[in-house]
Specification:
By secondary structure, this protein is α+β, with helices and mostly antiparallel strands. The chain has 25 helices and 32 strands. Strands 7, 8, 9, 10, 11, 12, 13 and 14 form an 8-stranded antiparallel β-sheet that branches. A 4-stranded parallel β-sheet has the order 2-1-5-6. The chain has a 4-stranded antiparallel β-sheet with strand order 17-18-19-20. The longest helix is centred in the N-terminal third of the chain and has 28 residues. The relative contact order is 0.10.
């Protein structure tokens, strides 16, 4: 019997939709895109392999015709869909409702070539009612949306595949450029440059404590002798100099004021009350959900979207890639009913709140992110179904949606000014008369009820000219603060504000910036690397237009025009690539090949120095003064590399390692050094060509270079140690240190020395080694010993699981019982914070389960001989992880 075939992107979505359709429907998953531009030379068809444009996968001379192929990993999925289509009487394409989803449907149509009628289904939520309505009102594929998405895809491909190889040639292998990625990195770099140029300024203030009866309140010094006292905003960030017309209080003045004012009475000089009304924030869109989840739950943008996708595909929320704040009538009615039942009529406005989208050219998803259906699923039910992490994200969405339909919060701001001698102090208070929407949701707070109390600051009832007696005073040292670095949330907010990128791309862009080593996280802040500074410097000088914020934002307007059928995609691609009264991408790359001097772009002069510079080398950034080089410690922020710090590193490098003694057997000097792979001991000097290479042995875990004595160094250099002969098989047992840590060897058998053993590779004796050798062999993926617990870090704010720190076989890691995440280089075991541990676990969770590498090889691959040629490094745009060879 013929059935209707419905194709969606994921198995979870297919499973949910199947519940709402009858036996006459078969629902299949495409597992995302079924075809794409080729990502390797093996995917390029033989008939076009010799074409000059085959590397790009785009025939730029034939109206930018794209070469689409079905990747090897998608062929089984396509075959399964083709088989299902044979028995279908109609094909429904039910991919997501945005441009990406429209593109997936179009590629399915082009690949499957169905001979039955085809209909496009669109819906904002996966509920029975929504699916039924979509089936009753299908439409055709929107070719304009497809053209807009494909234009974006081709622009990203051209950008990444043309500029990235230039970066490899002129700077370093492995670098990448991307249309939005590079602009996002520029934002991070611009902020770091502000921090580097920042000049810290110190100043002092006074805090006073006054009392009326038993009620005390604090106030801050604002004026002295009628002149305003300087605060942080009164200093030039580039010079540290104060603005004219303010009084800068120093330590001596502050301490004298404490003693002087202590003997004078305080008098209330003014009391001002001002009512306020606070409106609720609109429902979530993609960017605000990512920002709030990052702020409250410490989730990365990528992880937030993974969880939101899970909620959507299980029919619990509406579509999660949107920049519209509009709520449907169904959602408004559901929220108002819930408010009436859970909070009471006093919290329900007479009329529904209607929010209008302020984002220019809001994307095709026409509703905000909200709980799905006409009755919102409870948070507890989501926790039971999908677990605590999904429940926490759902709780944000649930509370934000409900709060958006509640009454305003009202209250009063109170300002009290107090005069003491020639000093004026100010105290600010806030009272909330009616909490309104704050009962349900407070932006930036996990507990609305607690936050209402935190928002209030109650001042005692005082009146003008009232005498408060003598106060208590405290001198406070303060300093100006450099501009704060971006977090994932604030970076996405800035991209949205500038009109750069779209809801579907922000999480991917931020993840690319981190994965390409253009930034690293310090607590929750994104710190650009020295490599990022150098790459942006090159792009600004030679590709300034492509890195311009407004130019990048205008592309979104152009794509929107294409999606509305108001502009042509081919014309836009020609202008972008070939130019139109200006140099296009092709011309800029050709000029770059000729004009970019690697010596110039790989160096960044250090502030306040004529000789010192940071250079980008084969193995990363390093310091140079023209004659000497010094490694830059991993994890050092660019604004922390001051002139003094750089000179110290150079001087240390020029001195070279100091010998800690001499080997009595060889009379060679012993050194303790630090290399690319960590600290080690070395015997003898590094010889020239033909000379014997000095012996080097890495320090054991936990050993610090400063603590290495000559005796300890000689013990390490004596490895491997021969311990004796195994009586079971007459094989010699030795102890040594290898790639995966300390071990013993007996013949061809190896056993790792447990990290929590009472002995180590230097102290293990024959009996202990024999016992270890007799233990059953455990695969490298196994757990030969129980990891050593170091300490408890805290409780995960989302899952509420205990996070502990362990010493594992390959180094220290944190675990919540389900997810393990290794500490990054430079992280201190003793100083690791809860925030850092949560970030590590979230990043690891976002990567998904570890994929086991297959050991199987095709006959062709097994017999293919190596050419001896090195592989080209990989390039990237927002849509590409690899480049065609």
């Amino acid at each position: 019997m013929s059935k209707s075939l419905v194709i969606v992107e994921s198995p979870t979505k297919a499973k949910t939709i199947t519940k709402f359709l009858g036996k006459d429907y078969v629902v299949k998953a495409s597992f995302g895109h079924v075809r794409d531009l080729p990502t390797s030379a093996a995917e390029i068809p033989a008939k076009v392999k010799k074409e000059p444009w085959s590397r790009l996968g785009i025939n730029v001379d034939n109206d930018f015709e794209a070469l689409y192929v079905v990747p090897a990993g998608k062929k089984d999925s396509v075959k399964d869909l083709q088989n299902a289509l044979k028995d279908a009487e109609i094909l429904y394409l039910a991919t997501d409702e945005d441009r990406e989803g429209e593109s997936i449907s179009w590629h399915l149509l082009e690949t499957l070539k169905p001979k039955v009628p085809v209909k496009r289904l669109v819906f904002h939520e996966i509920t029975k009612e929504a699916i039924k309505a979509a089936i009753e009102h299908p439409r055709d594929i929107d070719e304009n949306l497809v053209r807009a998405q494909e234009t974006r895809r081709l622009v990203d491909r051209l950008y990444g595949y043309e500029i990235s190889p230039l970066l490899w040639k002129k700077m370093a292998a492995g670098l990448s450029a991307g249309r939005v990625q590079s602009v996002a990195v520029r934002l991070l770099v611009d902020r770091e440059r502000e921090r580097i140029a920042f000049k810290k300024a110190a100043f002092w203030g006074l805090r006073a404590t006054f009392a009326k009866g038993s009620e005390a309140f604090d106030a801050e010094l604002t004026h002295l002798a009628g002149t305003r006292v300087a605060t942080g905003k009164d200093f030039d960030p580039n010079t540290g100099a104060p603005v004219i017309g303010v009084t800068v209080v120093n330590q001596e003045q502050a301490e004298k004021l404490v003693h002087k004012l202590a003997g004078s009475d305080a008098t209330v000089s003014s009391v001002e009350e001002k009512p306020f009304t606070q409106r609720p924030a609109p429902p979530f869109v993609t960017s605000s959900l990512q920002q709030e989840a990052n702020r409250k739950l410490r989730l990365s943008a990528k992880r937030t979207m993974q969880i939101a996708q899970q909620l959507y595909e299980n029919g619990l929320i509406t579509y999660m890639r949107t920049d519209s704040v509009t709520l449907s009538t169904q959602a408004i009615d559901a929220a108002r009913n819930l408010i009436r039942d859970s909070y009471g009529k006093d919290y329900l406005p007479n009329e529904a709140r209607i929010y209008k989208t302020s984002v220019k050219n809001a994307q095709e998803a026409h509703e905000a992110i909200r709980p799905a259906g006409d009755a919102f699923t409870s948070i507890e039910a989501v926790r039971d179904q999908l677990g605590p992490e999904a429940a926490k994200v759902y709780e944000l969405i649930w509370k934000r949606t409900v709060a958006s339909q509640m009454k305003d919060a009202t209250g009063t701001y109170i300002t009290v000014e107090v005069d003491v001698d020639q000093a004026k102090f100010r105290a600010s208070g806030k009272t909330i008369q009616f909490p309104g929407f704050l009962r349900a949701y407070v932006e930036g707070s996990d507990d609305p009820e607690a936050d209402i109390a935190d928002q209030e600051r109650i001042l005692p009832q005082v009146s003008k000219n009232e005498n408060l007696g003598r106060g208590q005073y405290e001198a406070l040292e303060r300093s100006t603060q450099a501009p704060a670095r971006y977090t994932e949330g604030s970076l996405i907010k800035e991209l949205e504000k500038r009109g750069i990128g779209r809801p579907s791309t922000w999480a991917t862009v931020v993840d690319l910036v981190l994965s390409r080593d253009y930034a690293f996280k310090k607590n929750n802040a994104l710190v650009p690397t020295f490599t990022a500074l150098a790459v942006i410097g090159l792009l600004e000088k030679h590709f300034g237009k492509l890195l311009d914020y407004e130019f990048t934002a205008r592309l979104e307007d152009d794509l929107d025009a294409i999606s509305r059928g108001e502009a042509g995609s081919v014309d836009y691609l020609k202008h972008f690539y070939f130019g139109n009264g200006h140099a296009g991408l092709k011309g800029l790359v050709q000029s770059g090949e000729k004009d970019i001097d690697p010596r110039e772009v790989c160096g960044m002069p250090l502030k306040d120095s004529d000789k010192l510079e940071v250079r980008i080398g084969k193995y990363g950034p390093f310091l140079s003064n023209g004659t000497a080089r010094a490694s830059i410690p991993e994890g050092l922020c660019p604004d922390e590399l001051t002139l003094d710090a750089a000179q110290t590193l150079i001087e240390s490098a020029e001195r070279g390692p100091e010998s800690i003694g001499t080997d009595p057997e060889t009379a060679k000097a012993i050194y303790v050094k630090t290399g690319r792979f960590g600290p080690y001991v070395q015997r003898g000097e590094s010889g020239g060509e033909g000379e014997e290479k000095p012996k080097m042995v890495s320090l054991l875990k936990g050993m610090q270079p400063a603590d290495v004595t000559l005796e300890l160094a000689l013990q390490l250099l004596a490895l491997p140690r021969t311990l004796g002969t195994n009586p079971d098989n007459s094989e010699v047992i030795t102890a040594a240190v290898g790639r995966f840590g300390p071990y013993i060897k007996c013949g061809s058998e190896y056993r790792s020395i447990p990290a929590d053993a009472e002995y180590n590779v230097l102290t293990i004796n024959f009996d202990q080694a024999l016992e270890l050798a007799r233990q059953p062999k455990v695969s490298r993926r196994g757990a030969p010993t129980k990891p050593k617990a170091l300490r408890e870090v805290g409780v995960h704010p989302v899952t509420e699981k205990k996070i502990s720190l362990f010493e594992g076989r390959y180094g220290p890691y944190v675990s919540d019982g389900e997810i393990n995440a290794s500490l990054r280089k430079g992280m201190s075991v003793t100083e690791l914070t809860l925030d850092e541990a949560v970030n590590l676990l979230n990043e690891r969770a976002a990567k998904g389960p570890v994929q086991k590498k297959s050991r199987k090889r095709s006959d062709k691959a097994a017999t293919k001989k190596s050419t001896g040629k090195s592989k080209k490094p990989k390039a990237s745009s927002e849509a590409d992880a690899n480049i065609v060879e």
